[in-house]
Each structure stands twice: as C-alpha cells, then as structure tokens.
Amino acid sequence: MKKSIKNVLVLVSICAVVSVLMAITNAITAPIIAKNESANANKALLEVMPDGKTFDKVDISMYTLPATVSEAYRAETGGYVFKLTTTGYSSGFVIMCGVNTDGTVSGAVCLASTETLGYEKTFGDLLTGKNAENIDTVDTVSGATKTTGAYRSAVKDALNAALILGGGSVDIRTEEEILADNLSSALPAAEGKFEKLFIVEELDGVDAVYKAINQTGFVCVIGEQFIGLDESGAVISEVSEETGETAEAAIAKILATETTELTLSDYEGLPSQLVSAERTATGNYIILIKGAGYGIIGGDDYHPASGEYIYIRVSLTKDGKIIDCLTVSEEETDGVGSACADESFYGQFVGKTEETYEDIDAISGATLTTDGYKKAILRAFTCVKIFEGGVEN
Question: Which of 92, 104, 360, 372 is deepest in the core (most CB within 10 A)?
C-alpha cells in the first residue's frame, strides 16, 4: 500500500514538473511563433502591396462588403489588401488583391485554387494598375473564361470594398454580378450556374428561390440574406434557427409539389387566349396565356408589328391571388415594349388580385404592350373562376 502511494506521488511530481517546463517553453516559443506567423502573413500582403510596410487587420463585420471578401487589411502607407474567395472552374479559388489610395490595383495573386489550366497564376498581372472604370477592358482568356472571369470579378469586388472602407457606398458591380456573387457564396457547389424557380406554392417569408443547374442544391432569398441548401433541402449556410427553418420549409414545399394538366375542352367559357393550365395538389393554378400587345395590334410604316403575342405564365391561388408571374416570350419593340420581359415589370403582379392587378407602373412609351399584358392577367383570373366554379361539359 505504501509503495502504491509512493508511486502515485512520484507520477504526480513528474507531471507537475513537465507542466511547468511546458509552460516555460510555451512562454518562450509562443512569441517567436507568433512573430514568424505575422512575418509570413505580412510577406503575403507585401506581395500585392510592396509599399505597404505594415498592415492592420480590419473588422469587416462592421461593413457590408461583397460576399467574396473574407479578410481585409489596412496598409500603414494607405490603401487596402483583400483576401477573396470565389468560384471559377471549381470552388475554393482564393485571391489576394491590393488596392492603392488612388483606386488602382497594386497587385493580385492567387493563393489557392483547383483550377485546371493554370491561368490563375498569371492573370493577376494583367489587372495590376486597373481601376473601377477600366478593369472590364481586360478580356477574359478564351478557353479559360470561368477562371479568368471569376478572377476579374473578384478584383472588382476588391476595388468596390476599398471604396466602402474608405467611406463610400457605391457598388461598381452590376445588379447581375451582385446577384451572381451572392448566389455563389451561398452555394459554391453550384459553380455559378443557377436558374430562378417559378413559384407555384405560397412560400411564407421567402422572396425568391434559385436552383443550381448541376442539381447540387438551392438558394433561398429572404430579405437581404442568401441561404444555401443542399439537394435534399437541408440548410448549409450559417443562419439563425428561425431563418433556417423558413428556408427548409420552403424547399420542402417545392420538392413536394405535384401538378396535373387540365383538359381545357372540359370547361366552357375559357378565353381563347389560354394556351394551357395545370392544377397543383394543393389547389393552385399554373396558367400559360397570350397577351395581344404591340406585336399584334400595333404597327405602321416605321414600326411594323411583329405579329407575335406576349406569352405569360402566371400561378394563382384558387381564391385568385397571384403567386408568381413570368414573361415567357415576347416580340415587342426592342428597348420599349420589350421591357415587359424585365422582372421589374412582370414582378409587379405578384401578390395582386383581380381588384388590384391594375395598380402597377406602366411601361413608358408602351401603352399597347402594358394594356395587352394587363388584359392577359385579367383573363387568367377569369380562368381560375371558371376552373373553380364554372360549367364543365
């Protein structure tokens, strides 16, 4: 017994001595390790901004920066360096870019990638010296459009981020580029290719849903948040529990949607402009209908009509509220009536009823197009009323 106690005391003593030695060693080596790590990080920063001297990390949580920006540093001599993560041919494409105080690119290098052709190693040299006004003059490389396009887009994000950190708020990206960046950040596995889903069920709290063309998942837009979900509908983005549940409920409803095509000849009084109709298992309707805009009833010696209808897809609840609306095709006057194909126009009908559908902004200079579109929407309401209570043959 005494021997056992003695052995325990010896082991305890040894552990205590080892712990003290490790603490002393750590106290000596930790500053050295930290110094070396800092030196290595500083070296990478200096590579894209040689005149930066030293750098202070910026708390980017205080700003609304492009989604590709993961880290930002302020140089002692002015200007910023950004670490950006984007998707080219594949995900995990990491770039470091410096921006001078005059808004020009001081340098850009690829830190990591799984790109296959190697253009990411030298493309940054072509962007050095460029600014927000002329960066698009640098063409992407034929045969490596995904890689070089993603590189150029990420550097544009760095230029924009520098403006924001400098006190500005102007986003130099187009609306399409901003949307593409947000979608890719939420679901990198999609490789930048998405399609917006036409919604046929009421989705509580969700503004829009995008599906990856390669079937790797979805992105739900809720306010200004882009929430990524895998192909089964499980959230993969870091969001609040409530937001995650809202997104998952929306995708579950979409995945469960079933539709049945209606036989139009079974109903009396349907508008001749109706092309097709479907009913969902939950009782909503999906209608494809023609609108006679300028292409049908307009035209003169200078502006001949196309002879084509505007084809409109609209989904409605059985009590007559529009869930979604989309211009499928049109041949209206380019630059005028063709605006009916812009979401800013047809999106106005979402949520409208037969009592409120006319409360939308008309297309400037395209009265015939606007009126033809609204008449088609009115006919869609008529179709739902017939399907719900009309006379069947």
Answer: 372
Do residue 290 and residue 349 come from a single domain? yes
Q: Whole-angstrom Cα distance, residue 318 to residue 310?
A: 24
As a whole number, the mean pLDDT across the chain is: 87
Examine residue 210 and state whether it is found in any structural domain, yes or no: yes
pTM of full prediction above 0.90: no
Q: What does the angle CA 269 – CA 311 – CA 215 come to, to the nearest 5 degrees?
A: 115
Answer whether residue 33 shows pLDDT above 50: no
Same domain membership, residue 376 and residue 287: yes
Number of CB atoms found within 10 A of residue 307's CB: 9
Over residues 258-274, mean pLDDT: 96
384 and 269 co-located in one domain? yes
Q: What is the pLDDT of residue 288?
A: 98
> Do 370 and 307 fall within a single domain?
yes
Q: Break the chain down into helix, strand, coil percent, rounded to 5.
A: 40, 20, 40
Q: Is pLDDT larger for residue 13 or for residue 301?
A: 301
Cβ proximity of 221 and 194 under 8 Å: no
Number of domains in the chain: 3
The domain of 299 spans: 260-389
Q: Are 340 and 366 in contact (CB under 8 A)?
A: yes
Residue range 86-101, pLDDT digits in tens: 888 777 889 999 999 9
Instruction: Tell me the CA distances in angstroms from 21 to 24, 32, 154, one per residue in order.
Output: 5, 17, 48
Residue with tokens 């600014």, as numbered in its chain:
131
Are 294 and 367 contained in the same domain? yes
User: Which residues does 255 contact at the CB level (< 8 Å), separation at least 6?
Assistant: 233
CA distances from 3 to 7, 9, 164 (A): 6, 10, 71
**What pLDDT does residue 282 have?**
95
CA angle 193, 198, 204 (to 5 degrees): 105
